[in-house]
Amino acid sequence: MKRDLKKIISQMTLEEKAGMCSGLDFWHLKSVERLGIPEVMVSDGPHGLRKQDDKGDHLGMNDSIKAVCFPPAALSACSFDRSLMEAMGETIGREAQANDVSVVLGPAVNIKRSPLCGRNFEYYSEDPYLAGEIAAAFINGVQSQHVGTSIKHFAANNQEYHRMSNSSEADERTLREIYFPAFETAVKKAQPYTFMCSYNQINGTFASENKWLLTDVLRNDWGFEGYVMSDWGAVNDRVKGLEAGLDLEMPGSNGTNDALIMEAVKNGTLKEEVLDQAVERILNIIYKYADHRAPQEFTMEKDHEEARRIAEESMVLLKNADQILPLKTSEKVAFVGGFAKKPRFQGGGSSHINCFKITNALEAVPADAQIIYAEGFPANKDLYDEKLAAEALQAAKAADKVVIFAGLPDSFESEGYDRSHMRLPECQNRLIGEILEVQPNTVIVLHNGSPVEMPWINNVKGILEAYLGGQAGGAAVANILYGIVNPSGKLAETIPVKLADNPSYLNFGGGDKVEYREGVFVGYRYYDTKQMEVAYPFGYGLSYTTFAYSNLQISNTNPTEKDTITVSVDVTNTGSIAGKEIVQLYVKDMTASTTRPEKELKGFEKVQLAPGETKTVTMELDKRSFAWYNTELHDWYAASGKYEILIGASSRDIRLSETIELSSSQVIPMHIHMNTTLGELFNNPDTKEAAKELTSRYLAAMNGGSDTASESAAEAITEEMVAAMTYSMPLRSLCSFGGFSRAEIQEMIDKLQAIYSNPLK
User: Fold this and answer.
1) How many Cα atoms sit within 13 Å of 114 on the Cβ side?
2) PANTHER family given for it (predicted)?
3) CATH number for the domain harbouring residue 411
């Protein structure tokens, strides 16, 4: 149905228009019955609906409806599977339609800057490319059901400490390369109906009133078409926010901020057309849902099975020494740990789902499995209980193998606060050590929303990273342990050996300002560039089968920045059972045009293979795949030169590589001044000859100024020698060492700038 929104808005009173720009309550937008504007509801939902029917409170103190908890982002991103994430989105979209929810508040794509962030379980990855691709797939799935998404939290919201007021201090290149791309990809590939701005400030300006962020970047640079809503309570100055591009305040402010909007319009400090534009954006999204309302059945049992499938596709097998896994039903296995019976499968806070059912691993094992269960330690606190520990040790001695269900209690990670360390509860580490003394055949299953240190890593034979698996995660764990499912997930984040290894370690948390001093070196970009030992690298994950890579083909090894390159590689299942492999494509910049990470993920595909089967995996690269953000150009810049195309099974397991040479027509502006160095002139082809002449005269002056010396100097000058001796010498130094006057140097600078600006003249 086509609607004349401008006509509707022209019939609204100023009070009605101001009212449309804030919530009716915690979850509803206002209606205007006389104009046919319906009341619609939004709900938390990155991994399932948290619809509160009565007395909404945002953080979940009051009950929400019974629903399905899918695997949170920390796990689902490890699937590296766009189609799986799109299917998850479609399912959540149908659930939203079944429950009359117009916008799902998710996905959350903030980058995992530190393992300590209390909300990391809701975020996809440390890598912006992976986060963006997974988010776009999820959004397309949800919105295929005419239900909106609200991608969040825009932007640079990477900690919980003082999240409502602190300022994330980061340079533009860091923001553009690390903290913005997941949002940008989502806009360009999925066009989310709405954006949710973050609480924090960015370089001293609140996200909710940051015109550069909400208008210049989001709308003008990327082409976002929907409306921007605030995180709940994120508005600092409502009128400034409206001018900056913040359309909807959530929740309402009991009319306080609506009154400020009306006053600003009346006294002329806010143009009414700015208000009208915000209202039009909001109405457009309201009708996108209302005009496609499709009541349907809430298929919770079916969706529970879908949640299990997603968990199975995403869990990561980290270690499998001596092929301790999969378990056999003929073996006597001790399950130890409270999480075996009461799994931790989601995080705390605004995304917490009121599940209609929960499966645990203990009850989900095959019917003929021989299981001894001992609690060992509680699932909800760090308490070493002598009696429980003794029972666990006895069970371990009596068994052929032990599976310890370890992890973080709810109190260890949640929205609202950050972790203070990266350790498991001490009671768990202590009991794991004691069990290893009596039973070497031990497997650890981890239930955690973010990496943990593993002091026992070299002594256990198996590790399954289950993360937070959603309400069906227990069944997924059981199916992987017993080989009913072949694990295929890979890490969407690096697991460091210890917290102090993290690049943000010295600059995380803090007070009013948080300085992002590590710049673009986040996650594997830091660990791999520094060649630092890690527990497990980004993109890593084992299978019960093996894969071989061959026949790397690149469609064009001499492209320009306007070309799209096709990269293909053959993958063969060299084992005896069916499995899935995630092929990863990284690009290494060899041009030395700026300081860059050692490699960056620019492509991935998941492929299913029968034993002995070979399939060709194809990925595409464009200019952006090679580019870095140049703040002088205010654009993405791909330098001419060599780049290495790397195909790997993880960031540390590169199987194939080939070098290409890119020809770029882009030019970085050069501003020549007194402190420009001779080396910089030599590096620019337009000023190289002038730099040679200057250096010859400078060396001649240093040799006493004789013609003979000058000729000798000219003959002796080589590019290698000049680069070594003069690279860092600024032009002003020629006054001291070359006998030039200041005026003469300025004349040369003007001449050089003219040569650079008009190289053909």
Assistant:
1) 27
2) BETA-GLUCOSIDASE (PTHR42715:SF10)
3) 3.40.50.1700
505, 536, 567 - which closes a domain = 536
The answer to whether 57 is a known catalytic residue is no
Query: CA 334 to CA 402: how far, in whole Å?
Result: 5
The answer to whether residues 522 and 588 belong to one domain is no
For 200, 238, 361, 728, the CA distances from 256, given in Å and listed in that order, are: 22, 10, 51, 59
The number of domains in the chain is: 3
Which two structure tokens, joined as six digits, stand for 468? 């937070």
> In 3D, which of 229, 88, 93, 213 has the Cα closest to residue 148?
93
Model confidence over 569-596: pLDDT tens digits? 999 999 999 999 999 999 999 999 999 9
The CATH number of residue 615's host domain is 2.60.40.10
**285 φ/ψ angles, rounded to the nearest 5 degrees:** -75, -35
Other beta carbons within 10 angstroms of residue 251's beta carbon come to 18
Strand ranges for 74-184 from DSSP E: 103-105, 148-154, 167-169
Residue 656 contacts residue 569 (beta carbons within 8 Å):
yes
pLDDT bin (cut points 50, 70, 90) of residue 755 is confident
pLDDT per position as a tens digit, 89-109: 999 999 999 999 999 999 999
Surface-to-core class of residue 418, CB atoms within 10 Å of its CB (0-12 exposed, 13-18 middle, 19+ buried): buried
Give the separation between CA 236 and CA 207, rounded to whole angstroms: 9
Please report where in the chains the tokens 């990496």 appear, as a residue. Answer: 451
Q: Which domain holds residue 651?
A: 547-662
* Interval 344-378: pLDDT, tens: 988 877 778 888 899 999 999 999 999 999 999 99
Residue written as token pair 């860091």: 174
User: Considering 662, 686, 706, which residue would you say is the last residue of a domain?
Assistant: 662
| DSSP for residue 291 | T
On whether the CB atoms of residues 230 and 248 are closer than 8 A, the answer is yes
Could you tell me which of 587, 581, 553, 550 has the C-alpha nearest to residue 567? Answer: 553
Res 733: pLDDT: 84
In this structure, are 436 and 512 located in the same domain? yes
The reply to whether 553 and 634 lie within a common domain is: yes
554 shares a domain with 480: no
Domain identity same for 556 and 575: yes
* Residues 6 or more apart whose Cβ sits within 8 Å of residue 17: 9, 275, 276, 279
Q: Which of the four pLDDT bands, split at 50, 70 and 90, describes residue 667? A: confident
From the list 288, 157, 175, the residue with the least C-alpha distance to 225 is 288
Which residue, chain included where needed, has tokens 């049992």?
A: 301
Distance (Å, rounded) from C-alpha 280 to C-alpha 9? 7
Whether 161 and 253 have beta carbons less than 8 Å apart is answered as no
- The alpha helices in 49-107, defined as continuous H runs, are 73-76, 82-98
Q: DSSP assignment, residue 357?
A: -
Q: Is 422 exposed, middle or buried (0-12, 13-18, 19+ CB in 10 A)?
A: buried
Tokens of 613: 């089967």
pLDDT digits (tens, 9 = 90+) for 283-306: 999 999 999 998 889 999 999 999
Which of the residues 44, 127, 231, 528 is marked catalytic?
231
Residues 565, 514: Cα–Cα separation, whole Å:
39
495 and 557 belong to one structural domain: no
In this structure, are 685 and 619 located in the same domain?
no
Nearest in space to 110 (alpha carbons), one of 604, 495, 540, 493? 493
